[in-house]
Amino acid sequence: MRIIQIIDSLDIGGAEKMAINYANSLAKSTEFSGIVATRKEGELKKNINEEVSYLFLNKNKTLDIKAVLHLKKYCKKNKVNCIQAHSSSFFIAFMVKLLLPKIKIIWHIHSVIFSNSSRNKKYLIQLFSLFFKGIITVNSELEEWAKNKLYCKNVIYLQNFIIENENYLKETILKGNNGNRVLYLANLRDPKNHLMLVEVVNAIHIDFPSWTFHLVGTDFMDVYSEAIKKKIEEYQLQNVIFLYGSKTDIENIIMQSDIGVITSNSEGLSVSLIEYGFYEKPVVVTNVGQTPFVVDHNVSGYVSEPQDIIAFSEYLSMLLKDENLRIKFGKVLLNTITENYTETVVINKYISWVSQFK
What we know:
By secondary structure, the chain is an alpha/beta fold. Helices cover 39% and strands 18% of the residues.
């Protein structure tokens, strides 16, 4: 197999991390592995292994003929026979297939935005699915949608996975006291519902004055991010909640933290959740996407309904005041991640699935 991953950007995000993970991992077991960023480079570029071929297209519009021809030339030169297109990059993969019909396309769906899109967009996705050889989804809900609504029936749910990095960077120093930090790894986008976390902190911080809360993720300097900052100021939580923006030394940041949280209104399968678990952090999360299949409520963490501030606050409070419970939950979640969400487990399933393609 000679395969490339295609992703819109290399900014820090779950889909971007997974595109790089696949490229890095497949470089160990395939004849050729590459990754193509179509629209934008970013901080994650430094995570691409030397064995992986890299191309940046600098695509600046939906139908960019120059970018399509550049990608076609790259595929032809490197004898690429399979394109794994992540999220919306399936369109440029389709354009290349029109020029190189023998290329196989695998569409990798990371978000429910495709299943929840407008009727016209759904019709377009259905049409494009005629040209897909296979579809990968990151949760069982998306798997059912793809099987029932798209024309390509070769659909598989594959877990997101983490690749251990023993030589991780150590750049960021989190504020607050060691042993008393709560972390939320998520870009500042509306579906991640950071505002809920601010409300939770406002409700409980008086009872836990030594604990601080750390929001790590890209700040797009938009209306949503301004609303978060305004709410923090309104509640006078500037010395309790800290925003760091985009960071690349995620392992280092997690190691400085004691609890991981996710307050999202929607998710596919959160890469942050897998990262929390891999580094043995207990979690409080919302019941979205594949999350409840990863976290066993009251066994490896707590799961509340989205936007349920009261329940989330109660669960988080129980973790804040009980170190033994934090240790217990962290160990159980680590076992879950080790058994189901590591490179070896997922890539073995992937290669077995892809090997059936004709």
